[in-house]
Amino acid sequence: METFNIPATPLLMKEFLRQMGGTAVIDGGLATELELHGADLNDPLWSAKCLLTSPHLIRSQVHLDYLEAGADIIITASYQATIQGFEAKGFSREQSENLLKKSVDIALEARRMYYERCSKSSSGGTGDDRILKNRPILVAASVGSYGAYLADGSEYSGCYGEAMTVNALKEFHRRRVQVLAEAGPDIIAFETVPNKIEAQAFAELLDEEHIKIPAWLTFNSKDGVNVVSGDSLLQCASIAESCKQVVAVGINCTPPRFIHDLILAIKKVTTKPIVIYPNSGERYDADRKEWVENTGVSDEDFVSYVNKWCEIGASLVGGCCRTTPNTIKAIYRALSDRSPAAPGQKSKTAT
After folding, report:
1. CA angle 16, 178, 202 (to 5 degrees)
2. Which InterPro entries match (predicted)?
3. Is there a binding annotation on residue 159?
4. Is there a binding annotation on residue 253?
5. What is the CATH number of domain 7-118+128-282+297-335?
6. Does pTM top 0.85 for this prediction?
7. Would the annotation count 310 as a binding residue?
């Protein structure tokens, strides 16, 4: 079986994308799939609850399903996993840190299992509608915002109160980021960043703690212009651009209809690869803690945007809340049809 040597340095993303031919596929919604397979996520820990109750679902029913749908990057179940959140549930500091490490271990094990399936496959790329293709795969350790820990919907508003500071956010996230980096992912995904001060906190943490693992920062927007707090997207993306350990910047958990203009805005301030993984377009009711049905777009409509996003600058595309392996498989096939070739190579269509 071929091995892939992608350096865990600021060069990681450029080398990864070079090996992938210019574009790569990120996985889709985690909680959506866990609930589909019977997990009860009505808990302040949300999807991180499954690190305690059903890690096998994360590994075999989510990570593996997304890999077999064509995802080149899988994101760990640590978005809402925090040391403070686990301690509030009665776990010790050591137990809480071990649960964070476990989220990375589960994803790494899923990747190993996938490669084993690829080595046993004789189909040359697909089998039983599964994509079994030996290729570089990255594990991204998810770091959700402070608002995700609060479990009150404030990651969708960025309203942390006037007393919240960059330093306070750094202290909240510091040990969590250290533990996840030490667990051995390929990249750290700072996701659903809702305001400028948290972007600044993440950038300063990466520098202060000499984190060796590269990172991406993705923001969310509800108007297609600014991040959800009302802070300037240009200012937020500029913070990511100025941090040497940040290897990609973009948007997640945002309706697809806003993505085109957001990519064009980010391109004004960054030279780094742009990462895009929107939600399905459905509206989240923070008071009822549920998604409002019939407010999103179909997989077909979602995927219809993908090639245009890549044409105007996106290099990494996937899905966030309420997207599924079917969505990701459709993205994989759309990008395979587009098949951007590496320099000096003819374009080819993947299986």
Report:
1. 75
2. BHMT-like (IPR017226), HCY_dom (IPR003726), HCY_dom_sf (IPR036589), Hcy_S-methyltransferase (IPR051486)
3. no
4. yes
5. 3.20.20.330
6. yes
7. no
